[in-house]
Amino acid sequence: ITGSLRLSLGVFNNQKQIDETVSILKKVTTELRSVSPFKEKYSF
Prior knowledge:
It contains 2 helices and no strands. It is mostly helical.
């Protein structure tokens, strides 16, 4: 199972939006890793 995410920043993005996106992505990544069938193999 693989995946990717592409984000683009523009002149209208502000620091608050960037910080919120990073925070949400950290939470989602942790959740997805916790249910991954590969977590033992790759030591997440």
